[in-house]
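Incident review: delayed structure delivery

Summary: a single-chain prediction request sat in the queue longer than the usual turnaround. Root cause was a stuck worker, restarted by the on-call engineer. No data loss occurred. The affected request and its eventual output are reproduced below so the record is complete for anyone auditing the incident later.

Affected input:
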Amino acid sequence: MPKRVTQHQLEDTSRYKFALSLPSAWVFRDKDKDYGIDGEVEIFDETENSTGLVFWVQLKATQSPNPRTIKTLSIKRETLKYYLKINIPVLIARYSATDDKFYTKWAHEIDPYYSKKGSKTVPVKFVDSDIWNTKSAQKTISYLTRIRSVKNGGLHLPILCSLQINDDQAYGVNSGTLISGLRKELRKYNDIVKLEFIEKRAPVKIIINKDELFINVAGIAGCTFDNIDHSPASLYTELTDYILLGLGIAITRVGFYELAAQIIFSHNVHAKLICSPTALKPILPHLLKTSYYENTLEIVNAIADQDDSNILESIALATMLRCLDPDDKNKASAIENFLMRSKERSKKNDPKSYGHALYNLGNFYANTTEIRKAIKYYLKARKYQPIYRNQGYYYGELGGLFFEIGKYTTASFFYKKALELDANSRWNPLYADALMLSGKYKQAHEEFESYLAASKDMSPEWHLKTLFLNVLLNKYNIQSQIRNTSQATSLADISNNKNINENENRLNEALENDLLCSLAWYNIGQVLVEKMEIHDAAFAFIFASLINRDDPIAWANATSCCMDPSIDLSIIIPTIQTAYFFSEERYLEALYANFTKSNQDLTPLTKVVEKAISLIPKKQTLPEIRIANEEGKLINILSDI
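Output delivered after worker restart:
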């Protein structure tokens, strides 16, 4: 009795047989089995020149004689998602040891729609036309060439489409009548689609199977509609609308967002999306990034007016705020109008969500620098949604808003409240910063030191401010101060006085009124430079810059003085990083101007600066949009996008 071959032997056989089935000019290479990929195929022409066409293969072998088993397999949903995401096409090859045949299907042809709800796998079904044969090689070349053409910008209006009906009857009509009627109807939209009778010339296939419509773009992205609702009289117009909609949806999946939006918002096709929120959901973020964002927001509003669910509103807000540019007044106005409409809708339909709508408006204004409006809506939010009273992030964000308008004592109160409710350490340095600027130097120093000792935060700003406060406390022995900012600034203005001794007295008096007078520290730095006391001048300029963080000249002077050999590298690097974080290219322009005036060799200085800048963490200034989850807890949906 013959022994049953092991699965390992079967896999080796399938790999060997598949390699043999390829044209002799093609090269099959084994691959590590990441995500089930067994091999890579590179296509060469008859003259042994590479065509640049490559695909990966996942081999699935079976020795079952059962036709159903041979023609059916399952693939993990996560694996399929990976295949659809990568730039290299993946061929699923099912080897039947019984028939000694391969059934093949491209990963992009597998529709997750047919998997059971909640299932972790997706079924793959093969038919006899999927058998790999002598014609498969040329079909593969055509397929891969179409993909390359599309990815290289080969899609433009009107889009060439082939039309294929696979059954004798579909939607209750014989195939001949249906194809003739559809061609006639589609000619009305020749600015969008153009039917091509030679299939291989068309990057898009329109395929109809009984009651199913499938749009496929170059074999790499598709869209399926089942059981389209229609009357006999409306069949062709309904099918055509869904063909255009499906074309737009499929095109978003290959990255042609503007083109997709153009298709969807032409000829009233978008009206279908209002009836199909589930079709809109995956493409919504892409449409909002196009010039049709206002039209897209109108669809979301129309759906939200009919449906209590706020998921599409949340996705729209998250997308728009994530890419918000406060300088784009038109887009900012569109978002504001959308938020206002959402606010009025929630006030009418759902008083609980009204508080969230107010919070979201406040968040929007915070990110467009309309701080006082933001504070107004934040405070109103907790009136209508008491849950905010127990949310640490809410008080932390309020603290940030009051900090921005110079209300440092109020800011420190809210930061402290945030810390009491939320152990998140991100509030600690902000609380210390607010304490410092409200004149509580000793308490601020203790908070900074405690935070830095317990945290791995390497933010150069906090380290420099801790150093600054340490100098203040040791040199001036002032633990707290009621800051008289206006008097200090008046005293620190020595621009019209040439008497050095008198100027030094005025600057010291300015600090007695306000140890955080930026102008006083800046002018102290200037005086010290004139006296050639560069070490002390460096610290004076650093202190001036830390107080007035958006002053590129002060930062440039601080850095220039830091290049003195007496200054430790542990001071130089954080100074450069903090300066660039706040003033960016304006700082570099001023700094390199200083270097040029000094007649120094710029090369080593520039290398130090550029290296320090390269190590700066990227700014994270994303807004937050919060909705209540199933447990009633408010979560930031932007963190998951």
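Verification: The first helix runs from residue 7 to 21.
Action items: add queue-age alerting; document worker restart procedure.
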